Amino acid sequence: MTSSSIRSRPRRATSHIWVRLAHTLVGAVAGVVWLVLPWMTINNDVPVPATRATPQGASAAAAARDETSASDLVLPLAVVVVVVVLAGYGYVRRTRRARTRTTPGGTVALAPPAAGPLSEDDERARAALVEADDCVRTSREELGFAEAQCGADAVEPFALAVRDAASELSAAFRMRQQYDEGVPADETSRRHALAGIVGRCREAGRRLDTEAPAFDLLRTPLHGGLDEALQPAEARFRDLTARTAAAQTTLADAVERYGHAATAAVTGHLEQAKDRLVFATVNFNQARQRADAGDAEGAARHLRAAEGATAQAGVLVSCVERLSADLTAAAELVPDVLSAAEGELAGVEGVGVRGAGASAQGVGAQGAGGQGAGAKATGGQGSGGQGPGVQEAGTQGPGEQAAGAQEAGGQGADAQGTGWREAGARGLGVQEAAQHAGAQGAGDRGADAQGSGAQRDGQEPGARGSSGQGTGWQDSGVRDLGAPGADAQDAGRRAAAVQGADGQDAQGAAPGLTPGELHSLAAHAGIVLAAVREEVALGAYDPLDAVRKITQAHAPVAAGRGGALSVGALLAARSAVALADGFVAAHRGALGSTARTRLAEAERLLAAEPPDPHTADALARQALALAEQDVRMYGNPIAGAAEHASGAAGAVVGGILLGGGPDGGPPASFGGPRTRARRGKPPG
């Protein structure tokens, strides 16, 4: 078998072996020659008798002998010198190779270049994310104007490029989010993660840069007939001017109904929209002037700046419109969400109390007159001191067992019915304001009444049941909330108040919690719900914030059922994501990577299946706060008063102009990092 040292020896080692053998052979030959040479110089001639010589002859003979002996020493000395030089050379090579060797038989290891601090890689990754996100947003923005000018079929290749770039960017943001969360942990892996982020961003930019020349050819009217490109842009500008005026009235109504706190997220949006429209007006005029003067490139530059300003004004106005619609939808949904949460908490509290061996009490005991929070009906019934054991009349369903159907004073009869569900025994039931027997749902009944699916399809929230139907019913026509405008309002009106899948009982809520933990969480949620009820009763309040508080307080004890609670959570999350995205889009020139990363993660969680609305909502609100902080720290990009009057300063903050000049620099255009500034002024 071959030893491990031989197996690990690299191929280059063979050449070193032959060099050593050659050195050894040369040394051996030189030594042999040196030893043999004296024998070769011995005189074998027959001796001649000595004769008397003159003194001159004797001296000549002696000189000849000295010369011969000196010449005999030259060759051996030369050989010795050569051997010493070769041996020294071999020793130096072996020493140098031993110092740089990584393994006993390994190759010479080249010292890697010293890696810079991790913070430098981190800054490069942050800058790459910002640049790539700006490129994707700008390209998508100009793509909309190109589609209005040339049609959807003509821009499809470029739309595909934008989607591909957005996909790469989304992956890069996901990697960055994990990096910020500490994954991976070791330094080498974190360097690789940062390198991967930079690589993804570069690929996104390369994809857009590749399509930029063809995109310019698509918009050739910019270099010829300017009217063909100006008409759709100016039509959009005029429409937006009218929307801005209407949004002013809409915002004033929302402030009057819900207070300034409810609309704080869009404070200043309409003023900034007007600033962008002023900038667009100036650039539309300059584009026509340049076109009349025959300066096609200058006309294209000003038209692109006007388009970017118009698009951002539209984003800002849309944020105001959407928030107003979401507030209206949330206001209509609050009673149903509140009642659904109270109904489920009533059942959860009952389970927790029985499991802990405690006496039955209402959830948090926050209501007036000692009534528990879960005992209140949707109609807002007040105090009255009704106990938890209220008789229920007329509740017998088709399959109900007659025995023990009555509840009096908290009797623990197991009434199984198909036509009703008892409030408090199920987790997601809307409690009706007036039962046929005048019974009020209590949150701490001892009866384990199990319904077999009393569901009501397509009915409006708060509708009264007929034929003695109980407090819990489900609207099978629940639609997803979060769409802007009328869709959100319609979804809010149609939202179901209640209940999860059939066959689940209250004990299925919040799996994995001990009865004590469940009881504690339910008590805390009850306090939150009581506070929300009090806030709603006082008058002007923030409906989105109320829905958010209810759903977040209820989430720890929820059983994952659908209904008004999940609809409310999605409404709040989508509203928060939309507001954050609009702010980032309209202020991207002043933002760093952190706010963009949190927003991207919120969008990912909201689009997941199933979605995670609570985490998405928290990340979106964090992204908005970080973005607002970045804008405050960015300060004033242009010092001149004239630039502020023309809207150029706002255009730099919005990323419409790329900065770098007294006039704000060139406009951002479709493309990646190499091409997005191609419409700048020519040098000189």
Concise account of the structure shown:
This protein is mainly α and 684 residues long. The chain has helices at residues 4-7, 12-40, 55-100, 118-150, 152-180, 187-218, 226-258, 269-292, 296-356, 486-494, 515-538, 543-554, 564-586, 593-607, 613-634, 641-646, 648-653, and strands spanning 416-417, 450-451. Among the domains are: 17-34 and 77-99; 325-380 and 419-446 and 453-460 and 467-559, no CATH class; 576-634, no CATH class.
Which structural class matches the secondary elements? mainly alpha
Rg over CA atoms: 43 Å
**Biggest sheet architecture:** 2 strands, parallel
For the terminal residues, how far apart are their CA atoms?
77 Å
The count of strands amounts to 2
Instruction: Spell out the helices and strands N to C.
Output: HHHHHHHHHEEHHHHHHHH
Strand order of the largest sheet: 1-2
Question: What report would you give on this structure?
Answer:
With 684 residues, this protein is an all-alpha fold. It contains 17 helices and two strands. It has helices at 4-7, 12-40, 55-100, 118-150, 152-180, 187-218, 226-258, 269-292, 296-356, 486-494, 515-538, 543-554, 564-586, 593-607, 613-634, 641-646, 648-653; strands at residues 416-417, 450-451. A two-stranded parallel ribbon has the order 1-2. α5 crosses α14 (593-607), α8 (269-292) packs antiparallel against α9 and α9 runs antiparallel to α13 (564-586). The longest helix has 61 residues, at 296-356. The relative contact order is 0.09. The model is unreliable at 1-13, 48-58, 102-111 and 352-508 (pLDDT under 50).
